[in-house]
Design goal:
It is built from 14 helices and 13 strands. It is α/β, with parallel strands linked by helices. The chain has a seven-stranded parallel sheet, with helices on both faces. A six-stranded parallel sheet has the order 10-9-8-11-12-13, sandwiched between helices. α10 links the parallel β11 and β12. The longest helix is centred in the first third of the chain and has 17 residues, at about 10-25.
Length: about 375
């Protein structure tokens, strides 16, 4: 059976969805990736068989005519490659898949990782578009071939109550599984205090607040080290500006645009930072937790499920440089808790979010819905 995994960029496959794809491949499904290539991927470097189909789109565009054109392109891809199942990740791709679904016979798995900035912005265009999505989701959720997947109880409840979606067609699976045998803790003590962030360089990922915090903390604690891994996409209107990107490069931060061995970099740090404004169940945060890091995450819905305060880290107010600075300062002053925080983080991932736990849930859902 041909299964297409539809994601915005190839880098997100490497960072987030490769384990999920491997599980399906091991179950006998033929895997196709429909994506825009920002980094090269191949069966050789990911160690399993798949086909890549290039799909160029603008993930931030609200132009309906443009999206209809993209949906038409998706329909052609699905038909030309005899795709029987499409599993779409992220809101824009879910919307395009739903549009295409009326013209194909594919089974649809619609993975709503989060609602993004669209539902937080009060601009008229965004309000109109977000309400269109609500209506569209409410109607399509009543069709048996459209299976919606969410990662948090908060989001499931929101879709049922605010989007008026059919609850029988919404399934909660807590992520796509972290490989706890790959994302392992460091066995040797580390010093000085080291923090790492893995995120795209978008404003709503809190990158500007992160830079403010680094600048302030290094004045107070000059030996503290910061690492940031994330791609800057200049054409994306949500990205930080060129001036802000230049500021980032001028700061005392170990910056990497893209790395393939994040599992080797993560455990060389003490804490993982994610100052996002909105988030589903953050894969990068779970990978860091599996590596035995403490977590400093925004106090938002998806992150609350990963941080148990003063047991494996701290939550802080979103969109606040001051709150992030206070959280980092608190982590530094509680250096003696680092090992305990890391152990708690890893146990949490192994018990609730490991690939072993979640692969069973994913495969059972596929068997139930596909046969």
């Amino acid at each position: 059976m041909n299964v297409a995994i539809f994601v915005p960029r190839s880098s997100s496959i490497i960072y987030h969805w490769v384990n999920f794809a491997k599980i399906l491949n091991e179950q006998g499904y033929n895997i196709f990736f429909i994506t825009q290539s920002d980094v090269p991927i191949s069966p050789n470097n990911l160690n399993f068989d798949f086909t890549v189909i290039e799909f160029n789109n603008d993930p931030s565009s609200l132009n309906l005519l443009k999206q209809l054109s993209e949906a038409a392109n998706l329909i052609k891809i699905l038909k030309d490659n005899n795709i029987e199942v499409i599993h779409a990740f992220y809101l824009k791709n879910v919307f395009l898949t739903l549009l295409a679904s009326f013209f194909t016979k594919t089974k649809n798995f619609l993975h709503v990782c989060g609602l993004g900035n669209l539902f937080n912005d009060l601009k008229l265009k965004n309000l109109l578009y977000s309400n269109l999505i609500k209506i569209f989701f409410a109607l399509t959720s009543r069709l048996k071939d459209r299976i919606f997947i969410v990662e948090t109880a908060y989001l499931k409840n929101k879709l049922e109550k605010e989007f008026f979606m059919q609850k029988e067609n919404i399934y909660q699976i807590c992520g796509t599984g972290i490989d706890t045998e790959k994302f392992l803790p460091e066995t040797t003590p580390l010093s000085p205090m080291k923090f790492i962030t893995v995120t795209r360089l978008l404003k709503d990922k809190g990158v500007i607040e992160y830079m403010d915090a680094v600048e302030s903390i290094q004045k107070e604690f000059p030996n503290t080290e910061f690492t940031l891994v994330g791609m800057w996409w200049e054409t994306n209107p949500l990205s930080i500006s060129k001036k802000e990107f230049e500021r980032l490069q001028d700061l005392n931060i170990n910056y990497f645009e893209n790395i393939n061995n994040v599992y080797e970099i993560l455990p060389k740090n003490h804490f993982f930072i994610l100052p996002s404004y909105h988030e589903g169940l953050s894969v990068s945060s779970m990978e860091a937790a599996s590596c035995g890091l403490g977590l400093l995450l925004s106090d938002i819905s998806g992150c609350r499920e990963l941080v148990h305060s003063d047991k494996n880290g701290y939550l802080f107010k979103k969109q606040s440089s001051t709150a992030l600075i206070d959280a980092i300062r608190k982590a530094i002053k509680n250096f003696n808790k680092v090992n305990a925080f890391g152990a708690y983080s890893r146990n949490l991932i192994k018990e609730k979010h490991s690939i072993k736990v979640l692969s069973t849930q994913v495969c059972e859902l596929y068997k139930q819905k596909i046969g």
